[in-house]
Predict the structure of F-box/LRR-repeat protein 7.
Amino acid sequence: DSDLSMRTLSTPSPALIFPPNSPGFQNGRGSSTSSSSVTGETVAMVHSPPPTRLTHPLIRLASKHQKEQANIDRLPDQAMIQIFSFLPTNQLCRCARVCRRWYNLAWDPRLWRTIRLTGETINVDRALKVLTRRLCQDTPNVCLMLETVIVSGCRRLTDRGLYTIAQCCPELRRLEVSGCYNISNEAVFDVVSLCPNLEHLDVSGCSKVTCISLTREASIKLSPLHGKQISIRYLDMTDCFVLEDEGLHTIAAHCTQLTHLYLRRCVRITDEGLRYLMIYCTSIKELSVSDCRFVSDFGMREIAKLESRLRYLSIAHCGRITDVGIRYIAKYCSKLRYLNARGCEGITDHGVEYLAKNCTKLKSLDIGKCPLVSDTGLEFLALNCFNLKRLSLKSCESITGQGLQIVAANCFDLQMLNVQDCEVSVDALRFVKRHCKRCIIEHTNPAFF
């Protein structure tokens, strides 16, 4: 036997993921039902691997016959490991209970760089405790191979589960806990303090999280080492409603390496918070402040300080932004590729003109629900942004078929066009289809199909 067979003879049961009375765990056998469909209380169990040989002669004969029919057993170990690599965590636990060989293969360290758990009723705190305990057996108290933990939508996740990750997974690089509204700042602080390699953090929908910072102990201890800095580059705080300017100031001061930041529906953020952000985080490539209703043209002036580094910007439904803010972005952020300005009703043809003439490499633009944008603005886009691939004009009341025809005649690479609730003729839509053959048109004209 290989050294893998010398591992301790225990493995988390599928009941770690599925409760015994769920559709995915019946009569002691797991089905293919995903972990998101579980109901009831999840039970964490530890089972021994299947025995090496069967003693009863009839059972042994049946087993031999089944083995002859199972072509999968003829595959080499490397091929089996490759197949197992596509399985979610709960299915991998099931495979470990099939036979001795599968047990050894299922616990190959290469398969445990990621833990992915989903489901509203799963006892995720217990699951993480049992799994990390099993993965720490070769390196006591430390799980060196685990780099990614995704427990999005597990509403029963609490600070206890995050404490387990922080204590056992020092090599963690990616953590996604979106929709887990029971976790608090303290648990997040522990993770970022004890996992120095963490680069990707998604806490969207975690309404109790108001900041990202080091614990006081870690701040004192690690200050000479990295100056109280956190290595996070990707941070998603969408729907963290309680986040305020002061919290954003702390995040910016500690997470200076940020390149992707999403603050959708962080409704308490103002222009002052963006000013703090631009002081410390000068490497941001993607930024979203959609539905931050207090962000105005002054905030756009701050964002424009990112200059050519900014490639993605979403300011959807920021009603205080006008042509003035768009001019700031267009003047300084010439390499912008994506702009979502849906619902910014203060934007007119003049703003679109300035944007088109300065951001000529624009590939995606959403100016839906901007009633002051007309065919004139579309003409400026068509004559300057030849690389445009996605354009949304949903509910733009001043748009007509003439403007669409100008766009289609110049932007041959157009792949998506949204003209829902726009007064455009069937002939104009057919013109677009003829000139942009790969374009998918979203419309509300029943005569065009």
Notes: The longest helix spans residues 57-69.
